[in-house]
Amino acid sequence: MEKHTTHTPDFLGISSGAWPALGGSTGAGEGVVIGLVDTGINPFHPSFATQTPTRRPVFTEGSKFKGTCATGERFPASACNGKIVGAQYFARAAVATGEFNASRDYASPFDADGHGRQVTHPF
């Protein structure tokens, strides 16, 4: 079975006919901020693009969010593009105990193994 989880409604078999009953897709999700704690996030994945050739632009107004967008290795300031409005990382304990492995871990919110993206993109 091939995974297509970047297209969650198709993957879950959710009818596109639900949008009109909910007021339409124009402002859907407007003002909603969802917080997740995970291994990180890959801001370059198509799921977090504000627009793609096959998808209309998404609502990207993040000015009301008062959080932090930490930058670092593979996570530039542009990663917080309005669809991702904040990101932080907490590596101090891993560094202090010698568990931080620079060959697989990043001193930034970037997720190298894909778990954070897999968990986050359905939202």
UniProtKB/TrEMBL annotation:
Gene3D superfamilies: Peptidase S8/S53 domain (3.40.50.200). Transmembrane segments: none annotated. Keywords: Hydrolase, Protease, Signal. GO terms for biological process: proteolysis. One of its GO terms (molecular function) is serine-type endopeptidase activity. InterPro entries: Peptidase_S8/S53_dom_sf, Peptidase_S8_Asp-AS, Peptidase_S8_subtilisin-rel, SBT. PROSITE patterns: SUBTILASE_ASP (PS00136). Belongs to the peptidase S8 family. PANTHER family: PROPROTEIN CONVERTASE SUBTILISIN/KEXIN. This is Subtilisin-like protease SBT2.2. The lineage of its organism: Eukaryota, Viridiplantae, Streptophyta, Embryophyta, Tracheophyta.
